[in-house]
Design brief:
With 168 residues, this protein is of the alpha/beta class. The protein has 5 helices and 5 strands. Helices cover 35% and strands 17% of the residues.
């Protein structure tokens, strides 16, 4: 059985045991979280969240891209979120590649240079500060005053706050 079939079996068991009910599309904590896609980070467990409490946006590195800004704008303007929590983490795969190297690898494999930015980084704190500043400076976001950033340690599972100037 392949991985997807196993997950479908898991879902059937989950759906059969889960209580019936409908959660509001608007997160009850009025919170959006942007983090990495790393499989070691279970956002809901790490933060004690339940379903329906926060939007969780994930991509490689937890990078603030145009698409993340698009999602945050929808989250805030249509779905009522007011706070943004950014979570980067130690031992990130984005620290193990370079923009130029990965771009060249993709171009060699496909014959086409990717149009998207790779967004690799060396220093997790510096990258998180850049992400904080990107969110706080976006004209598309209504709520830029309650944005905080943290580094999740994949070994201890603890969070450490990183600041980038004043925050609300």
């Amino acid at each position: 059985m392949d991985a997807i079939e196993q997950l479908l079996d898991n879902n059937r068991a989950f759906a059969g045991a889960a209580p019936a009910g409908h959660l509001d599309v608007r997160p009850s904590r009025r919170l959006a979280i942007v983090t990495c896609m790393d499989s070691r980070l279970d956002v809901f467990a790490a933060l004690g969240l339940d379903g329906g409490q926060a939007h969780v946006l994930r991509n490689a590195g937890g990078v603030i891209t145009d698409d993340v800004i698009r999602s945050l704008a929808i989250s805030q303007r249509r779905l009522g979120t007011r706070e943004v929590m950014l979570i980067h983490h130690t031992d990130c795969g984005m620290q193990k590649l370079t923009d130029d190297g990965f771009r060249a690898e993709l171009q060699e494999a496909t014959g086409v240079a990717p149009a998207f930015a790779i967004e690799s980084f060396v220093d997790v704190d510096a990258d998180l500060r850049q992400s904080l500043l990107r969110v706080r400076s976006s004209p598309f976001l209504q709520h830029r005053d309650r944005v905080r950033g943290f580094v999740y340690d994949v070994d201890t599972h603890g969070l450490r706050e990183v600041t980038a100037g004043e925050r609300g």
